[in-house]
Amino acid sequence: MNEKIVVEKVERELQERCDLVRREFSFSGGRVDLMAFDWSGHDPYYVESLAVECKGEIEYAKKVYSLLIEQLTRYLKVLPRLYLAFPKPKRDRILDDIKTLCRLNDVGSVAVASKLEWEPPLQIKDEKHRWTAMLDGSKHFVDVRTRGAMFLTFQDVFGKNSLWGPTWCSTPERADQVQYTAFQEQQQCRLAVNLEDSRKIMGQVDMERLSRVLRQETREAEFRVYYEKYHGPGRRTRIVLLRKLAGAISLDDLQYIRQKSAQGAMLHLSIGVPIWTSEALNRDEHRKRMEGARETLRPIREALSKRQP
Questions:
Q1: Nearest to 270 by CA among 211, 193, 217
Q2: Which helix (H) or strand (E) holds 285?
Q3: What distance in Å separates the CA atoms of residue 88 and residue 272, rounded to the nearest whole number?
Q4: Radius of gyration (Cα) for the chain, nearest Å?
Q5: Does residue 185 have a pLDDT over 80?
Q6: Alpha carbon distance, N-terminus to C-terminus of the chain
Q7: pLDDT digits over 26-81, tens only?
Q8: CB atoms within 10 A of CB 194
Q9: Residue 91: CB atoms within 10 Å
């Protein structure tokens, strides 16, 4: 059994029991294969999180020891609960050795066969808050709690049919259509009206109406324009062309964006507002904040979506 199959089996079980599961979750110091979040427990302020690192066949327990020392114990500074998943070895002695090494290093184990054997048993609702003494609360707050709350709240407000990235989530419109996007910048989460590719839309937008909306209705939103260049699958770079408060955007600014788009420049537009900064709220308040930001940005989305007469 290879690593890909291990990931799929563990992911499937987590999806049945958690609100949200993300692959390839990045954080300061590393990246874990699976990250599960849940907010359906008894505590509306506590974002449950559980990480799983997946591996292929493990023939010797010594390999696990090196992995624990060099990688996984470092992850415990950020991740409250961490499991190592692997194909169940044919020899019981190897399985026992792996479980012992994991237990001694405060890492759970998942032996993957026809069924998954979790040790300790899988409990999504961590009512005893069983994190280790290694946890760095400030790193956990930025990398896990803040982002997890953003992901879960976006799903509450916009539904499960969304697109997900390492630090962002968006509604499922195409790149040349207007989206809502939430993203994290350090300890701040923002909601934005987002246009990945301006070339098709900007030539059709009623610029005077958009200018009026930016000046009058959403003055405190920040207007950002990036010049993007793709360098192959998964590789792109961007530079900032324009960044200022929406209320300060002039008609000349908008005409410049239209002109560059008509010339073939792939411009990325993002007009957004902060939802929360360095705050840990309960689930209901997080949702109300994001819904309020959506209403603030709705006139901009409508202005970008409506074509000129």
A1: 193
A2: helix 283-305
A3: 48
A4: 23
A5: yes
A6: 60
A7: 998 899 999 999 988 778 898 999 999 999 888 777 778 788 878 888 999 999 99
A8: 26
A9: 9
Mean pLDDT across the chain, nearest whole number? Answer: 90
Q: Six-digit token pair at 84? A: 């190592």
What lies within 8 Å, CB to CB, of 185 at 6+ separation is none
Q: What is the pLDDT of residues 102-149, one digit of tens each?
A: 998 899 999 999 999 999 998 887 666 678 888 999 999 999 999 999
CA atoms of 308 and 266, how far apart (whole Å)? 21
Which amino acid belongs to residue 218? Answer: T
Number of H helices, E strands in the chain: 9, 13
Is the link from the previous residue into 89 a cis peptide, with omega within 30 of 0?
no
What gap in Å lies between CA 79 and CA 32, rounded to an integer? 10
Supply the angle between the helices 251-262 and 207-216 in degrees, to the nearest 10.
140
Say yes or no to pLDDT of 307 above 70. Answer: no
CA 47, CA 156: separation in Å to the nearest integer? 14
- Amino acid identity, position 217: E
Amino acid, res. 196: E
Going by C-alpha positions, the residue among 212, 195, 213, 181 that lies closest to residue 293 is 181
> Hey, what are 14's tokens?
């987590």
User: Domains in the chain, start-ordered, CATH in brackets?
Assistant: 3-131 (3.40.1350), 140-305 (3.30.930)
Beta bridge partners of 236: 230
Statement: residue 309 has pLDDT above 60: no
Residue 306 gets which letter from DSSP? S
Reference 149, options 257, 13, 39; nearest CA is 39
